[in-house]
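Note to self: keep these together.
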Amino acid sequence: MDRMEAVLNEWIWRHDLWLPPGIQWEDIQVDPEQGHIPRPRDLTYTVPLAFAFIACRYVFERVVAVRLSRLLGVKDRVRVRAYYNPKLEMYYKHNSREPSQSDVLSLSKQCGLSQRKVETWFRHRRNQDRPNNTKKFCEATWRFLFYFVSFIAGLNSLIKTPWFWDQKECWRGYPNQPVSDAQYWYYIFEMGFYLSLLLCVSVDVKRKDFKEQVIHHVATIFLIGFSYCANYVRVGTLVMLLHDSSDFFLESAKMLHYAGLTCICDTLFVIFAVVFLFSRLVVFPFRVVYTTLVVSMDFFKPFFGYYFFNALLLVLQALHIFWAYIILRMVYKFVFAGKVAKDDRSDEESDGDDEEELEDEGDGENRKQRKDSINSKLPSLANNCVLSNLTNQGNINSRLPKAR
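Structure:
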């Protein structure tokens, strides 16, 4: 461990990169009674902590979250399982989940099936892999628990600090700023949790902003790790608190959405949108980023660590703008549609895949009769103002966005 730390200090944690000009690591001295100096070796505990979070999540979701989902009446859709076809299964796993029209034609010839049956098989197979509401509820419950506890603990540890109210205090006396035990554990638990999210990203519910989520997790881990080692702890705690302030509203709204409690869900979504937009588009850029970009230069000259830290903050801000656009678009639909519209970051498969198709391709007469029956009902549907709702079918099964 000591040898590894020596290599890191020689090649990575060089004082001329991460500290203001003229300051070395040995120059950082604090009163032991007020706290301790952050060291890179402290972050090694986040790796086993990440695996501990994964183990706790596994137990929590199966012992607590599943029972809570049943108590709240979370229901899963009944989906038709695709029958086993070795050629189609091999193509599905090794080529594509959505074959092109030419591939559908080729597969239909190889399997001796009609193109319609091949398309139906792939639709059923995709639906078979889609996460059910119980899985999504359990995931949202676990995140809600952590974000809520983290926000309460972080707020309790910061509300009495001077830099919580005046961001200039983030730099007064830097880098000789002691880190209290509460701030230390706040950092360790936050970084361990985001490491666990990154390790589980391949098995969690995948949404259309999957790449943005990975970028967010990586940027957050780098930001937490670097800010701790370079003793930007005061700013780092503010960043973590701002993120946690809105996330537990989002996760609680998701839980109620999966439970079918639409009214309360929509109310929480509105609260989440207000808190998110205020904290990420007002407080974060004009208080936190401003103090790191501008105010900090009143205390020291820019150096490599200054640019690196601010670059990570700007990456997070770019992601905030991306998600704010999605939220504002959903709020717009909420105002004019009367309820939360379909989440544009929802599962990659559309809800239309859940609709069952006719299995008997050869029965053309029956299909014609069904078509005539449907056409005969269209006038009555239009008279009852239902046809307009059918054109907006995507709004029925709404999903809320994931902000982190």
